[in-house]
Amino acid sequence: MQFGSPECFVSASSVANIAADGKQSGGNPRPAQEAFGSHRFLDQIPAAAVLIDQRGRIVASNRSLNDYLDYSPGELYAAPLSILGPDAARLLGSIKEIDGGQSPRLVRLQSRRGEMRACLANACWWSGDPEGARLMCALDCRDQVASEQILGRIAYIDGLTGLPNRAAFLRQLQSRCEAISAGEGAFAVARVDLDRFRLVNDTHGHHTGDGLLERIAKQLRESVNAEAFVARMGGDEFALLMDDRGSERELRDRLERLSQALTGPFDLEQRRIYLTASVGLVRVSDNERSAQEILNNAESALFRAKDEGRNRVTVFAPALQEQARSRLIVFSALQRALRDSELEIHLQPIVEGRSQALVTMEALVRWPDCYEGACQPSQFIPISEELGIAPELDRLVIEESARWLAYLREAHPALRGVPININVSAVTLRNEAIVDLLAAARQQYGLEPEALRVEITETALLSDSEHVQNVLCNLARSGTPLVLDDFGTGYSSLRHVYDLPICALKIDKYFVHRALRDPRSLALVSTILSLARALGISTTAEGIETERQRSTLVRLGCENLQGYLFAKPMPPAELPAWVERMAATLDATGDG
Q1: What value does the mean pLDDT take over residues 102-122?
Q2: Domain 157-316, CATH 3.30.70.270 — does that match?
Q3: Sign of torsion, CA 111 115 121 123?
Q4: Where are the alpha helices (DSSP H) in 274-370?
Q5: pLDDT digits (tens, 9 = 90+) for 45-89
Q6: For domain 344-576, which architecture applies?
Q7: How far is CA 515 from CA 527, 554, 562, in A?
Q8: How far apart are the first and last CA of the chain?
Q9: Residue 384: in which H helix or E strand, if any?
């Protein structure tokens, strides 16, 4: 058995007791020096062992200890205990009030050349010497300690970029919080998030995305040099811990220069990629906040930077903390609402402009028993996208829309053949699973492919992501009609109409409302309608609230209309009654 294997470890107290009983010495116990003077007894122990007298001098050491610490036989005799390093003295001193042995502990013993070598050791009183000698046994554990050190380094290093990771940043931040309590200077924490980085993965693949993150990490290291502690927090987010010795303006300028350095271009695999970055900053001048609270405040500032349009630096203010708390409450409530089926869909009819007959309807998600202040979709839908539950919300809308459409078609003859428009988030459109999800919903409720139409906003297409376009093309090939919503509000509307298999477009209500009082808006609406006719694309005008708006859009050639003039969004069960009332009204006026 080799010195260093765990099985060979013999406790100091057991060795001492064996010697005291005379089982190894061949008779009555002998004084310590006599028992160990020849090393014969001690050399039978596979662990390293050393005997210390009451004056703190080494009485004897065995072959294993001599080899471990590079000493010759007998060289340690009469040497002071301090020659083995301070850990040995502390270990032996700790047994003063211990009756018997103790559990092994990690210590470092000093070798002949001054190196500190790790071992597991314990000590006890030497029962064979009434004058108070002590025995220490040790087990070499340098390999295990080295492995633990390596694992420790790994635990605090990001494997992709080589930067410190989130755990390392929190540890460093905690240390800085403790230092500021001791009077050290103020500091700042910045959270840096790459805007729309997911589109890089979706468009070019995760291999390219990983390569870009490595380049970003290198750029960060070079930009901050020794001025800041920089870490990768996960995904496409990084964090910086830096001194704050100047004004807020100076600190913002530093971060804005850093943000500019991250814009690229980055050339990867014959692709040129440009980026922007949003930064949330918090300044710390006292010790009233914990490390986690500081990090949360920086995240609140980061969220505000994104809300304000991205590619900017936002400094934390107390009001942002309340907004973050409110966002988290809404998120938790929304998760519960999804789990407990509290969300439901309402339907808003879309009618033919001249006859006002029902053409299709749009499914809109509603939250009747919502968290206070979050009832409007414009409030909770962005939170669902921001915090990653938009696909779950989209799944609910798709499944409920299919279920209600099948029911309504069966319940009312006038609704047979009428399709339904479903809004799908940009996050969901990045996943091919949307194609199968729609197909499964149609199959479950016996609907034809054209029954479920997908509305896509130009915001979802803002990136011109090739991957999103492939998903949309696959949807079109599966028979799902695509409708371009809020047409005219995006920066590349015409290109989307040209590149994608769009069957219909909806003119944003902003232009509809301005068309009657602004000649330029009227001309723009007229141009959109002419373009759509030339391309064979049907049109719907949103936000129709007055008869004058209706007649104007019909005169300009808009086919379909949607707005409060005809109906507000309603629970699906109310739609058949609305259809009957609408038919009766049209019959009475002769417009049917």
Answers
A1: 83
A2: yes
A3: positive
A4: 291-307, 318-339
A5: 778 889 888 888 998 899 889 999 999 988 999 999 989 988 888
A6: Alpha-Beta Barrel (3.20)
A7: 12, 13, 16
A8: 100
A9: helix 377-386
